[in-house]
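Researcher: Let's do a round of design. I'm pasting the structure tokens now; please hold your answer until I've finished.
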């Protein structure tokens, strides 16, 4: 059993809206926490900054800094503030601008992230999955190629595989080291092909996941997503990961197993989304341990993982003998 003097090392990999939910709860646990964050986003403020400054995508990093910070709420509100006035700043997030400025001041994107994390009292370490400006592409089952993270789900086609350019992407060395030294690696929920897999397919990251002695756990999405995972079951999500980085990387999958109200399901049906079905036997046949539970919050009209429920469950995986 781990002790406070030697806290268990948990590494969370991902991006999008699901990752901060996990991190907000985990930062308060007695652990050594590291977040490895996607830099493939190209929408909105992030996309404009990438085009104008040629920097890795700051948006997901910004949300992770906010989730792991320990400062007054008003500072987080300021950090997350998005300009809406009709001028050159319209649509920009202040946090994205601060990350761009700090990267310029320090001369390096990661150093900028590190310094801004210090300013915001981040509990844990935040590493971009790569220090490079990456472009995401998807090959569809009909053979067409769609480029750009924000464009892929809009194509409304079945995705065969995703890949990155430049072709020989270098992983951030600290990210690889964190996976190798972890006690638990958590693949966060999020858009499977545009927020999660772009991290896992980076050369060096995939191999680290294959070789790590840590338990690798995937927190499965609760709902399908139009343009990415329509009609996907839990095993389909896991299979997509296996197809991209090799079998036997995922040791366990965490799935929600309680009913979702008809009112919520009806709202999602309007967006052609539905609950992810748990095909337990198929997952077991794939050699993946199935961890089930009620892991969502029932306070909202949308389906969200519950910060306390999921962080407590994840923490329990590293404190048991």
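Researcher: That's everything. Go ahead.
Model: Designed sequence:
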């Amino acid at each position: 059993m781990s002790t406070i003097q030697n806290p268990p090392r948990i590494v969370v990999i991902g991006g999008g809206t699901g990752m901060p939910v996990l991190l907000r709860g985990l930062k308060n646990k007695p652990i050594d926490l590291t977040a490895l964050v996607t830099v493939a986003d190209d929408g909105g403020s992030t996309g404009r900054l990438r085009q104008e400054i040629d920097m890795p995508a700051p948006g997901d990093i910004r949300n992770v800094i906010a989730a792991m910070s320990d400062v007054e709420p008003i500072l987080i509100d300021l950090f997350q503030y998005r300009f809406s006035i009709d001028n050159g700043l319209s649509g920009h997030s202040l946090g994205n601008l601060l990350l761009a400025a700090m990267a310029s001041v320090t001369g390096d994107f990661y150093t900028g992230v590190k310094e801004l994390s210090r300013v915001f009292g981040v509990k844990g370490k935040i590493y971009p999955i790569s220090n490079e400006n990456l472009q995401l592409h998807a090959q569809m089952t009909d053979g067409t190629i769609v480029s750009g993270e924000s464009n892929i789900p809009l194509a409304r086609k079945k995705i065969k595989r995703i890949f990155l350019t430049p072709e020989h992407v270098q992983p951030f060395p600290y990210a690889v080291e964190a996976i190798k030294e972890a006690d638990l690696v958590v693949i966060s929920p999020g858009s499977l092909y545009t927020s999660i897999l772009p991290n896992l397919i980076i050369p060096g990251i995939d191999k680290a996941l294959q070789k790590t002695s840590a338990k690798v756990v995937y927190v499965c999405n609760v709902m399908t997503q139009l343009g990415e995972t329509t009609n996907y079951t839990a095993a389909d999500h896991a299979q997509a990961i296996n197809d991209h980085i090799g079998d036997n990387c995922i040791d366990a999958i965490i799935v929600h197993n309680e009913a979702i109200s008809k009112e919520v399901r009806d709202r999602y049906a309007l967006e052609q989304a539905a609950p992810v079905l748990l095909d337990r036997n198929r997952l077991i046949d794939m050699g993946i341990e199935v961890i089930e539970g009620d892991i969502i919050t029932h306070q909202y009209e949308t389906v969200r993982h519950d910060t306390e429920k999921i962080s407590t469950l994840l923490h329990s995986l590293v404190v048991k003998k």
